[in-house]
């Protein structure tokens, strides 16, 4: 299979800026989304990790989606991510909300039945089939390590055969054979992204199309420069930019994840806001360590701050 480099892509899972009183800071949210749009990176909003989606009420999620569509529709791909559901109805309700908001697509998350239980392949097929039979919004199926299990590749492939509104697949597992199997079966007809820049070279080599990146919140132009270098076949530039992105990836995850990302954004006068409880602001030493890496890779010059 010859790679179609025009399909190479990156998405960031946007932060949700909060004010000190815990409310969504809409002004900062708009500033942040506008910056992402200017960089040309695809955007997911309302995610359970970077977007702190588990802390959002239904009304807040609805408002978040509305603002994202206002700021980004027609500029870059704008998608609703959401959180892992306990039931099919929860996922269906989220897809209905996403459709009414007018996003380009919405993610269909893996089922989290709770209490450490793992659904069987038959139960997973029934869950996804129920969800997808109740919605025609363009959808991206997620298979994610956060729920503690792997959706069998054959279940995923059969779902794509039956449900034509499935336009993409997000694979957030570390097994290269699993990724290869899915890319071989589906990569020529839908877009496959891996969960994190660390797997980007492997994904592209296997025939997938891109990666998801929380780092895109602070480094959207760096993320897109990795995509551009891969698209043009500039291997030296690709390795240089991917290496910088990986140093940032490790600095953020090693020092508090989204908490330190928000602190960095605020430090540089960008729109980050504060984390919402139960998360707490990043510690000073964590911020200092992350700042050292930001300076080391020359991120300010790349991003044009």
Structure description:
It is a single chain. By secondary structure, the protein is an alpha/beta fold. Helix content is 47%, strand content 12%. The protein is built from twelve helices and eight strands. It has helices at 26-39, 58-72, 88-101, 121-133, 153-162, 176-186, 200-206, 220-232, 235-253, 258-267, 284-296, 299-303, and strands at residues 9-13, 42-45, 78-80, 105-108, 139-144, 166-172, 191-195, 210-212. Strands 1-2-3-4-5-6-7-8 form an eight-stranded parallel beta barrel, surrounded by eight helices. The termini are far apart. The relative contact order is 0.14. The model has no long low-confidence stretch (mean pLDDT 97).
Would you report the number of β strands? 8
Tally the helices. Answer: 12
Helix percentage: 40-55%
Radius of gyration: 18 Å
């Amino acid at each position: 299979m010859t790679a179609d480099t025009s399909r190479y892509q990156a998405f960031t899972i946007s932060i949700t800026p909060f004010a000190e009183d815990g409310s969504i800071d809409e002004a900062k949210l708009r500033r942040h989304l506008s910056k992402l749009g200017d960089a040309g990176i695809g955007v997911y909003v309302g995610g359970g990790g970077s977007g702190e989606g588990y802390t959002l009420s239904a009304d807040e999620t609805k408002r978040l989606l509305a603002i994202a569509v206002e700021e980004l529709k027609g500029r870059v791909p704008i998608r609703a991510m959401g959180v892992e559901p306990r039931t099919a109805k929860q996922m269906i309700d989220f897809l209905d909300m996403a459709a009414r908001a007018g996003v380009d697509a919405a993610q269909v998350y893996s089922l989290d039945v709770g209490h450490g239980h793992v659904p069987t392949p038959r139960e997973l097929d029934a869950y996804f089939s129920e969800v997808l039979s109740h919605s025609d919004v363009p959808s991206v199926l997620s298979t994610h390590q956060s729920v503690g299990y792997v959706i069998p590749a054959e279940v995923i492939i059969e779902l794509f055969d039956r449900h034509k509104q499935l336009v993409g697949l997000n694979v957030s597992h570390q097994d290269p054979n699993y990724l290869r199997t899915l890319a071989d079966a589906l990569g020529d007809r839908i877009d496959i992204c891996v969960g994190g820049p660390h797997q980007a070279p492997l994904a592209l080599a296997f025939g997938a199309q891109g990666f998801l990146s929380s780092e895109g919140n602070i480094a959207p132009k760096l993320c897109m420069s990795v995509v551009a270098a891969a698209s043009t076949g500039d291997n030296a530039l690709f390795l240089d930019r991917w290496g910088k992105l990986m140093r940032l990836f490790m600095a953020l995850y090693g020092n508090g994840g989204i908490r330190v990302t928000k602190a960095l954004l605020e430090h540089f006068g960008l729109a980050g806001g504060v984390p919402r409880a139960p998360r707490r602001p990043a510690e000073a030493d964590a911020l200092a360590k992350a700042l050292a890496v930001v300076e080391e890779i020359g991120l300010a010059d790349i991003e044009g701050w």
